[in-house]
Amino acid sequence: MSELIYNHFDREVHPPYISPEYKSTVLRGPTKPLVVIKQSLSELTGPVFGETHLGPLDHDLTKNSVRNGEPLGERIVVHGKVMDENGRPIPHTLIEIWQANSAGRYVHKVDQHDAPIDPNFLGTGRVLTDADGNYRFYTIKPGAYPWGNHYNAWRPNHIHFSLFGPNITTRLVTQMYFPGDPLLQYDPIFLGVPPKGRELLISQFDLSVTEPHFALGYRFDFVLRGNKSTPFETA
Amino acid sequence: MPRQTPSQTVGPYFAYGLTPEQYGYDFKSLVENQLVNPLDEPNAITITGNVYDGEGVIIPDAMIEVWDAHNKLFGRFGTGTDSQNRFVFHAVKPGSVEGQAPHLSVIVFMRGQPIHSYTRLYFADEAAANATDPVLTLVPTERRQTLIARKTSAGYLFDIYMQGEQETVFFEV
């Protein structure tokens, strides 16, 4: 018999559940060993999203919530490929996007940072990859912002992403950072990622997609868990 | 071979991106907590629960996703809008997938969790099926009840304990 088995999380690059420097992990991460289960169709299926789920401006955060003008800040275009660990592109898969505005303020009601809300920027969007696994969206470069983890704690500029991939084992929520950000070396969320994984979260400036007189380009690829087909049971 | 993109926490501010309508933001939600519409579906059930941290405090900024692989239904809900900070799902009890007892796959996200965790929700009134379920029987007997939603007059109750004596069983899937 032949069956498709998805790789487990690569724990050499993923952050552990608990890293004491990131204080809220201490009471929120599971402490008992995970129970390893054989993947069944419960795990090897998942929700499917398509063009009908997306609004016409979902891929353009600079336009999808304007009220009386354009959002303030540095316009950027972010693109890349979603692939699996074998380098195979993942077509037509959903990417959900959310971020702070250029002043480092989230629209979320809980965010009380004393920085202005931009009436023309909600900071959320969605995009589907194309037939070759490529995606592209426009936004405003997010600002850094303070948080309460420790004295003078600041989050580096980042964009949040949520991806599904082909089934629920490939689910990924992550954050993309920007090259050369001096706050990365102090950020316990970024530093919670093992050293081998950290570079994988930093986008690259990309002149090839930078649009003259319009927007700077950044490239960020996503790699979801891959699979291997096992030709027979190896008990 | 490219390596997996590392996970990062969903953070405290996911709501306007991932659960916007639930939290009252002006952006269309892709998914909601109604896997079925309880007004149209005579077999609809309501599943509620809280998520607790290691000190037994209710977590008000978690996001729970549920996947019914039998009916191909997906739901998502944040714990920040209910008056008791519960998650609430309207679903149907799934049929069996590959001979397993009826269950929902559950994915848990929150600020303070750098990578999401997977668990399963089984049903207390399926005792015979639960007794032979290949996943439940992998779990030490004394921890199995953490995976079984209790039947109440209002539906099913499924609390999630991130830590502590009653720590929910989480899976490597």
Please specify the SSE layout and strand pairing.
The complex is a heterodimer of chains A (235) and B (173).
Chain A: E1 3-6, E2 35-36, E3 75-84, E4 94-99, E5 124-128, E6 134-140, E7 145-147, E8 153-155, E9 158-163, E10 172-177, H1 188-191, H2 195-198, E11 204-205, E12 216-219, E13 222-224, E14 227-230
Parallel strand pairs in A: 3-12, 3-13
Antiparallel strand pairs in A: 1-14, 3-6, 4-5, 4-9, 7-8, 9-10, 11-12
Chain B: H1 15-18, E1 45-49, E2 51-52, E3 62-68, E4 73-78, E5 87-91, E6 103-110, E7 117-123, H2 127-131, H3 141-144, E8 148-152, E9 155-157, E10 160-161, E11 171-172
Parallel strand pairs in B: 1-9, 2-10, 7-8
Antiparallel strand pairs in B: 1-5, 3-4, 3-6, 6-7, 8-9
Taken as a percent bin, the fraction of beta residues of chain A is 25-35%
* Overall number of strands of chain A: 14
CATH superfamily of chain A: Aromatic compound dioxygenase
Give the total of beta strands of chain B.
11
Whole-number tally of structural domains of chain B: 1
Q: Uncertain runs of chain B with pLDDT below 50, 5 residues or more?
A: none
CATH first level of chain A:
Mainly Beta
Quick one: CATH class of chain B? Answer: Mainly Beta
The CATH homologous superfamily of chain B is called Aromatic compound dioxygenase
Compressed to H and E, one letter per element, the order of chain B equals HEEEEEEEHHEEEE
Radius of gyration of chain B: 16 Å
Helix/strand/pairing class of chain B, anyone?
mainly beta
